[in-house]
UniProtKB/TrEMBL annotation:
It comes from Streptomyces abikoensis. This is DUF2334 domain-containing protein. Keywords: Signal. SUPFAM superfamilies: Glycoside hydrolase/deacetylase. Residues 1-35 form the signal peptide. The keyword Kinase does not apply. It holds the Pfam family DUF2334.
Length: 616
């Protein structure tokens, strides 16, 4: 799975770890961690680079660059609005012509509630609105049918056609950018009894449109007197408290657009409920992060960038239940999969994992790469080597043993590498991307370069077909679940995977153009992971992987993740009322760290289930 960094022969492991520790500021392994890397002499890919969205911003490189300018423009408008110098031009009356169907996307999920997702798409960074809307649409796809469209396409009465409406305000209207929100939406949002979730910008424009006093009389606060920057900057909000969990918020200077400070009216006005509370690390000051009055829930920032496994986005992931499935009972399940198993894996290690998990009555997934290849002989003394499952009878026997002891077979690519080039590391199975190009820059960051030049549906299908044939040749049934190597592929590829498998179990990339029906832009995308199963914007069921993996050494500017880190992320995800703590583990590590992780997650009250149960 995920990008790799530094496969070493066992005899050199302590030296390699010492060098890494020195280079990265004195990092030292926890007691027993060095021993955990031991085991047999089988194939051991590089340490995993779990997809953190795409980079630390959860966006593509070009989008991350735009994010900084977007934040600066928003805060400039916020300061002008606070100084009463921001001119806002209302939206023009809607034309009588119908909106092109390409601008609207409906995603059919299992029978259930329906969600309307509205987003901004104007201004120099309008495409960010579509990226954020995809994140919301994906999460809403857990509950039922989702319809997504630009807010400018809204027509009167539309909110009444859905169980709930979510609007994400990403374009701070004012100055040269006129308000694109139709007056009908402001009025309907005020009048409806259906849930309205409003995220980010432009709530003040609604108050102005319906009347400030009218807004205050219904909702108990004044958005026109609420700002992200109250005059001393946006502060340094690093924590959000929600449902007895302290969630993280880690945004670098210059990329932080702040959290809106709502001006609560008090007195005889309706009471405002604070759902989540933000804390400034510099001053200790607290302020609401999300509030609710009646049917209106307001979230003070767009929480889909700079996310982590214990991030404040968890609040929004849970709040959607209030809007779309309020009767949902509390339930906490966990899942573990064993990762990067190939024809070069050590059968003894595989059987040891199977024996431990069976002894605990834990069902699990096994992510298998059916063909191992080292086209340049990087790990074979310069001689090219390719081995299929059918040519590795001891591995096949071990895998069948695992299937008899609670495992579910999953397909993890065809070769988990690309061509005969470094992509980004060695060109060897398990080390590299298969469906995306990447390189490591001078600062030791993995940079996503985009789909391969030959990427198309036929090419992706040919690799899937070859993978399935390799399983058949080794005597295995067809896997029904897929995990993309290093989680990265094009929109076209993801759709191909969805046509061949019941579900994907992974984090994913979502590309601009997908919702609008326009040309998909491979350079603009958002990465996302989920705390529950969803029907995503590609039309595929995606099962969750949301707490990462055990990795005892830091790599590519990512810190080590030890059992305590995975357990802490699982604890944070208890805030999701029907959520999953899903992680993966490499069987070339010793059993003990896996045991520590599973014991810790169980102690939190989670019940381990198999992968097929995650869709229920």
């Amino acid at each position: 799975m995920k990008n790799k960094r530094g496969r070493a022969r066992l005899s050199r492991v302590p030296l390699v770890l010492s060098v890494i520790a020195a280079l990265l500021g004195g990092f030292a392994l926890s007691t027993g961690a060095e021993a955990a890397i031991g085991g047999g002499g089988g194939w051991k890919p590089r340490p995993s680079y779990g997809l953190k969205g795409v980079d630390k911003a959860s966006l593509s490189g070009s989008s991350t660059n735009d994010l900084k300018a977007w934040v600066a423009a928003r805060l400039a408008n916020d300061r002008k609005r606070r100084a009463h110098t921001l001119t806002i031009t209302p939206a023009k009356a809607p034309a009588t012509t119908t909106v092109k169907s390409a601008s609207v996307q409906s995603l059919a999920a299992a029978a259930g509630p329906s969600a309307l997702v509205l987003y901004d798409n104007t201004g120099p960074y309008g495409y960010l609105g579509e990226l954020y809307a995809m994140a919301i649409a994906n999460l809403s796809g857990h509950f039922g049918t989702v319809t997504s469209k630009p807010v400018s396409a809204y027509t009167a009465g539309m909110v009444e056609q859905y169980s709930a409406t979510v609007y994400v305000g990403s374009t701070y209207y004012g100055g040269t950018i006129p308000d694109a929100i139709p007056a009908a939406f402001y009025q309907d949002a005020l009048k409806t009894s259906k849930p309205i979730d409003w995220i980010g910008d432009n709530i003040w424009n609604m108050a102005n449109a319906v009347g400030i006093e009218t807004f205050k009389q219904k909702y108990g606060w004044d958005p026109t007197n609420s700002y992200f920057d109250n005059g001393g900057g946006v502060g340094n909000i690093t924590q959000v408290a929600y449902k007895n969990q302290t969630l993280t918020r880690k945004i670098p200077t210059g990329y932080d657009g702040g959290v809106l400070h709502p001006a609560i009216s008090g007195g005889t006005y309706p009471q405002v409920t604070t759902l989540a509370t933000a804390t400034d690390a510099n001053t200790g000051a607290t302020s609401p992060w999300a509030i609710r009055t009646g049917n209106l829930t307001y979230v003070g920032e767009i929480p889909f960038t700079y996310v982590s496994e214990s991030d404040r986005v968890i609040v929004f992931e849970d709040l959607l239940f209030d809007a779309l499935a309020p009767a949902t009972a509390e339930r906490h399940r966990a899942f573990v999969r064993l990762e990067d198993i190939s024809p070069k894996s050590d059968p003894t290690e595989l059987r040891a994992m199977a024996d431990y998990l069976a002894s605990q009555n834990i069902p699990y997934g096994i992510n298998v790469i059916p063909v191992y290849t080292d086209p340049k002989g990087v790990y074979n003394n310069g001689k090219a080597e390719t081995i299929s499952l059918a040519q590795a009878p001891q591995v096949v026997s071990a895998l069948k043993y695992m299937l008899q002891h609670g495992a579910v077979l999953m397909n993890h690519g065809y070769t988990h590498q690309y061509s005969n080039v470094n992509n980004p590391y060695t060109g060897v199975t398990g080390d590299d991307f298969e469906f995306f190009r990447a390189h490591v820059d001078a600062s030791d960051n993995v940079i996503y370069d985009g789909p391969p030049a030959e990427d198309n549906a036929v090419w992706a299908q040919s690799r899937v077909t070859s993978a399935l044939a390799a399983f058949t040749a080794a005597g295995f049934p067809k896997p029904t679940l897929w995990t993309t190597p290093h989680y990265a592929a094009s929109a076209t590829d993801y759709k191909v995977f969805g046509q061949n498998y019941t579900a994907r179990l992974e984090r994913s990339l979502y590309f601009a153009g997908t919702l609008s029906g326009g040309t998909v832009n491979p350079a603009r995308y958002i990465g996302q992971f989920f705390p529950y199963s969803v029907k995503d914007v590609y039309g595929t069921t995606v099962l969750p992987e949301n707490i990462g993996n055990y990795e005892p050494v830091p790599y590519n500017n990512h810190p080590a993740r030890l059992p305590a880190d995975l357990i802490a992320s699982a604890k944070a995800n208890l805030a999701v009322r029907d959520g999953v703590a899903s992680f993966f583990y490499h069987p070339y590590y010793a059993v003990d760290p896996l045991k520590q992780t599973i014991d810790g997650i169980k102690a939190l009250g989670y019940t381990f289930v198999g992968p097929t149960a995650l869709a229920q």
